[in-house]
């Protein structure tokens, strides 16, 4: 069975998902929509599909599923509309920056019996997925401590910061999802510290650029997260999980694995320079998993609740950083 | 401009190239041909193209280029036919197992002013290509010594051995091409030693499974090649190049970069298990380079002469191994 | 000039320091003292020195310096006695488990104009020292975030736990010293979380075995520390420091750097199994630095104040873990 | 039991061995001898031993064993003298540059029932020794192919070249010994190629600076050796052994294991800069093994025959390189 897709939003992340859909042998990219006509036309041209309005896609009988890549503040409304229209929905994170709005949205989805997957792409990275598999296979015994390193190559532009909901809801939220994915228990306490070290302007906008977070579960399992908005050596994405019998870790990735040795030492190239090159395989696997859920009814993961839980951790972390105390959930 | 392709041969390597063609935005896979109807139908079905006979493809006005993936003993004839038919030709290595036949074929290609590229895929591996680029950029000074390690995960079936022309013409030939690609000078002497260590049956068929080769150029640059038909830990493909100012090397590749640490030590997964997974990116880049040559006239590399030179090195290595002396070219 | 040493305490750590003294060409091991006669005799025999009582060493005119390796609760008294006796003093950490007692002791040392070095051996590990040097050389720009991983191969015996002052004062204290050594600013806030995951008995003794700590300096620099009393794969000791221009890190160490590759993957041996093998070079360099301070008057580092500051961080971390809030210093 | 040593020769390698002897708890350095009075005095001063003449050491009743570190052309004579004088002899490689002279010397040793160990230090490197142990433990099955990389940081001075016997007898001879140590069978054929790529003066002296060698045993096991007199990135010493079940390899060593990451990539420091720093542990273990042979009668390895066999391989390699053909032994 082939799943027929509409992609809503033809911006940066829309292109990523359109490519993943177009390359999947069990998917057909039928239409894209975007408020900017040129963006929609360009994307449609690249993959030989139609340009339609969001309304047209909502009513289309030749579209089974949509990928929502529009601005964040439209996500919850579009999820509700398309679930009610009977489409399977894949929505880029976050559902909304406000947890109450997310809860309402999830209520609509549940009542409608809708299909909703949320775009935490890292669960589908083959290396991180292999870390999870090693845990599930018992390779390290019982999970005890998780250490997540996540550093962006460089800070986003000011206007992005303004709309992002802040570093915890925009960047650390991915790490909160990975923490939940790997800890095997729900975090019950969050302690965070946040600084402005990279760029003063980020501070002037009320946000932070360098944060450290500790999560603790009911049984005392711990997760430490280290984030920065800048890493001169590339997109630093590492995970290690310590258990009663050992450790499993995922290394950083680079496009080219060569090493040049000379009088100054041994040098390997910088890491991938951005999330789109680093997570190419993850985006493809993510859409494949969504398609499998639509066609074979496999369990949706991450689902709307996963989106909500990660957001609650982000809210708690922000509160902890501001008040200087542990926040319990 | 889009290049319209016919693929001749729908076997293992035919599938690899058909996928590379189908995935390339500047190529269109028009037809496949194969003596086995089912193989042709299956491949055509997977990519939504036609099944045609070789004759039909030869005469087709809607096909610009062919990829020859048929049995080795048909390569030279097909190259000649399709070059004379005005098609650009990409031919899997080798052109022929007999150097005289290759020379005659290249004469026909040259006289016809035809386009012929030979499938030494490793030149297009991003890691090996980066090694070459580092050399070209002057990162290691003047090249002095090249060390190539190439070990297959396991020996091929006996019937393959019989048709292969022997390990030097089948397996080491890739390393001979890489040696020429990296040495910056033509080898003028070959010294080889060959043993049967992996499987006695290979010896009974008159072939070897473990070989070591030294190449030397006119100025004394050296290349050492180490081959085995078996590597329990996966497809071992490494290169290091030493120059007057330093060394550049390409590491092995694995599908998943995780490490599990426990009481017995730190363990990373085996390498890729075969050439098709190891060289996925190389096959795509190879077809892209061929397309660029067809559409933009960029220099063909590797061309027919490269195929001939590698074959001559293979012939010389076999002679050296049998006679126990250095063979000069 | 040769410095003539007495070693007080011939137990595990006493042996380590006696060896470092005996191997140093600028030191002479004159005498050892221990309440257990056999321990003192054995150690004296191994290095061809005398057995004396602590009183005798205090009064000896042929001893310039002492290394205090006796039980923790005797450290402060012995420091005071030997400083007043005019000996240079190297004391194993900690000076005392009680910060007020440490302060009093340091007052005595200061008034006497005595020489006191405290045994935070990790500052002298060649790898960690090279990390600090890279920072000092400007290799990573301005320090922003430090990540310290420190895991023991296995938990100590219960009786050790009881006397240790708890994990923060016994184990994390080394990491607090490294944090101060690398951050370039004094921490002003400590947030810690502590669990019992490895061994329930540790919890029954009122201690923890798994802790995560965040330190923050006045300008917002952060340090994350991850500790466990168990690592099946050996003594896990890593440091990474992130700065405005890059990162510098020190890898783990193992006794033998081989790798075995087979059908199950690539395996390297476990890490060093204990601090004495891991930090062999550090102990030698530490004594050499102490000797240099005695003979050439080079600045003592780490000194008594460093010992006090690390203890205060440990006390603050314990308070934070118990009260669930950030503790400011 | 303590073995009492005399060291003959107080030059570079004499100092290395004197230190190994002085640091060994079961050895006592009694005396050193050197034609240059100052060299002997300096070395004796550093370790608090006497200066004696070679004659005096030969007749000394308080000396059990000697370490011969004099110029190569004196080795065979001194071995004979000291064996006949009843001393256990450790001789730096080579015994002599002439195989016939070595044979005569070994005849004298055998007739006298003397103890003779030859200084192939690499067998005692903990990493290479662990490679051998992994083979002996069956970790890789039956040995099939050995790959040895050995590159000096820089070429020796011309006067050293002149006395060295040439690169095969001076440098590659260590690799020939390692090959024999690891192959598990005696090589029966040698094929070598030799170039002058690093320094023309080396060629003018009749020597080479870059060589590649293939050894083959009776059953067809192969060893490839790659040598250069120059490696800008340090002392490159690697071994890998391939067997029927897998591979074992020993990595390069560096003094400090840190990595600096920045915009240009990830850089680790160069390797050790010379054999004395690279093989510090090996020299200590070598003398310890010699002492064990003297005191406990453990089998001498490498013995005089090992020295002779390596020299024969060197002679064969030189002949092969000059004549362009495989030389059988």
Structure in words:
The structure is a homotetramer of 329-residue chains. Chain A is built from twelve helices and 15 strands. Chain A has 329 residues and is of the alpha/beta class. In chain A, the strands form three sheets. A seven-stranded mixed β-sheet of chain A has the order 12-11-7-10-9-8-15. The first copy, chain A, has a six-stranded parallel β-sheet with strand order 3-2-1-4-5-6, with helices on both faces. In chain A, helix 5 (99-112) links the parallel strand 5 and strand 6. Chain A is globular, with a radius of gyration of 20 Å. The mean pLDDT of chain A is 96. Chains A and C meet through strand 7, strand 8, strand 9 and strand 10 of A and strand 7, strand 8, strand 9 and strand 10 of C. Strand 13 (258-262) of chain C pairs antiparallel with strand 12 (247-250) of chain D, so a sheet runs across the interface.
In short:
Chains A, B, C, D: Pfam families: GFO_IDH_MocA, GFO_IDH_MocA_C3. Chain A is α/β, with parallel strands linked by helices.
Describe the structure using short key phrases.
alpha/beta, NAD(P)-bd_dom_sf (chains A, B, C, D), Dihydrodipicolinate Reductase, domain 2, Rossmann fold, globular, about 40% helix, homotetramer, inositol 2-dehydrogenase (NAD+) activity (chains A, B, C, D), six-stranded parallel sheet, Myo-inositol 2-dehydrogenase/D-chiro-inositol 1-dehydrogenase (chains A, B, C, D), EC 1.1.1.18 (chains A, B, C, D), EC 1.1.1.369 (chains A, B, C, D), 15 strands, seven-stranded mixed sheet, 2 domains, about 325 residues
């Amino acid at each position: 069975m082939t799943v027929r897709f509409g992609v809503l939003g033809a911006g940066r992340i829309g292109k990523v998902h359109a490519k993943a859909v177009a390359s999947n042998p069990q998917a057909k990219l039928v239409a894209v929509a975007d408020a900017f006509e040129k963006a929609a036309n360009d994307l449609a041209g690249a993959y030989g599909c139609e340009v339609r309005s969001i309304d047209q896609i909502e009513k289309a009988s030749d579209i089974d599923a949509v990928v929502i890549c529009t601005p964040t503040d439209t996500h919850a409304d579009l999820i509700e509309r398309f679930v009610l229209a009977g489409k399977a929905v894949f929505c880029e994170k976050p559902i909304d920056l406000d947890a109450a709005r997310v809860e309402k949205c999830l209520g609509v989805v549940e009542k409608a019996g809708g299909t909703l997957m949320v775009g935490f792409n890292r669960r589908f990275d083959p290396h991180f997925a292999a870390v999870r598999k090693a845990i599930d296979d018992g390779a390290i015994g019982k999970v005890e401590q998780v250490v997540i390193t996540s550093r962006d190559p460089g800070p986003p532009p000011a206007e992005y910061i303004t709309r992002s909901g802040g570093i915890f809801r925009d960047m650390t939220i991915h790490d909160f999802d990975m923490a939940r994915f790997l800890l095997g228990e729900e975090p019950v306490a969050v302690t965070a510290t946040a600084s402005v070290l990279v760029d003063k302007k980020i501070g002037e906008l009320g946000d932070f650029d360098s944060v450290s977070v500790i999560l603790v579960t009911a049984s005392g399992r711990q997760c430490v997260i280290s984030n920065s908005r800048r890493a001169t050596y590339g997109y630093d994405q590492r995970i290690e999980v310590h258990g009663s019998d050992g450790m499993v870790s995922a290394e950083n990735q680079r496009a080219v694995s060569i090493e040049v040795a000379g009088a100054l030492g041994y040098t390997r190239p910088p890491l991938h320079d951005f999330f789109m090159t680093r997570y190419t395989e993850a985006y493809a696997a993510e859409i494949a998993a969504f398609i499998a859920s639509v066609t074979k009814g496999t369990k949706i993961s991450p689902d709307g609740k996963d989106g909500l839980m990660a957001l609650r951790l982000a809210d708690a972390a922000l509160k902890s950083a501001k008040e200087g105390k542990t926040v319990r959930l």
